[in-house]
Amino acid sequence: MKHTTGIHHITAIVGNPQENVDFYSGVLGLRLVKKTVNFDDPGTYHLYFGNEEGAPGTIMTFFPWSNAHEGTIGSGQVGVTSFVIPEGSLSFWKKRLTKLNVEYGEMTRFGEDVLTFDDPHGLHIELVEREEGERNTWNFGGVDTKHAIKGFAGATLLTGKPDSTLKVLEEIFGFVRVAEEEDFVRLKSSDSIGNTIDVKKTPLSSGRMGSGTVHHIAFRANDFSDHEEWRSLLEEKGYSPTPVVDRQYFNAIYFREEGGILFEIATDPPGFAKDENPEDMGKKLLLPPWLEEKRTQIESVLEPADARVLKGDK
């Protein structure tokens, strides 16, 4: 049986791009690893945040539109994105969020203490301590490597058909059911980050895409041949995956499962250092070759979006 090692990336829709960068880079300390555009809508950024290398399992990506209508979180979406932090870091993050005026809550789920808060555009975010996962060597602003986010802990899926979604996760992707608690089922994959999926057993009202909602969640394929095998498997199981799409930094296929969630399978290679030196990633706008001749036009409509140290950290 095939299995994915876990989450590759999660992509969301948000509002103002500089607010987005200030939160995920300035507040959370993630590296802006790639500043490019939505290939299907080149007048819009596609911003990628992650660890120093931009490794699969650490990447949160965004389509920011300043005038985007507000979405509604509900069934057919990722309801919560969870990041993993080193053991002993919760007190650091409580102090940091308080200092930067980010309201947070605390809860316990599946025996883990969790910090919960929203980003400026309404996305639900969590931080959870775990020993597993490599340390993030990136430090920025007030976040040092001792406390830096390692990558994804996991995600909470809201689905219109929980049994169908669980079937895909277990029988297609190879996640293993490890626990049930109240209204949630927890599944795990084999990697040390991005390895936990919680599925809410009770359907909510359908979500509506817009600012503050997750567009899709992507799972990992080891390489390009593995990716082709995933596509063939999906077809054999009666799903309708898209053709392979070249996203420059990975290849992608997409399909929507019966619970309404848009799933992607993305390749680990070639990675974000494909078109610039690792030390320079995220500093300038990178365009694919077919859009390079339109650079002046594209840059004229994009708003500023740069990683910067926040006043509270100076």
Automatic annotation (TrEMBL):
Q: Which GO terms describe its molecular function?
A: dioxygenase activity
What keywords are annotated for this sequence in UniProt?
Dioxygenase, Oxidoreductase
Q: Which residues form the Cyclic nucleotide-binding domain?
A: 63-120
Boundaries of every VOC domain copy = 6-130, 151-268
Q: By its UniProt entry, which PROSITE patterns does this protein fall under?
A: CNMP_BINDING_3, VOC
Query: Known Pfam families for this protein?
Result: Glyoxalase (PF00903)
Name the PANTHER family for this protein: RING-CLEAVING DIOXYGENASE MHQE-RELATED
The name this protein carries in UniProt is Ring-cleaving dioxygenase
**Species for this entry:** Guptibacillus hwajinpoensis
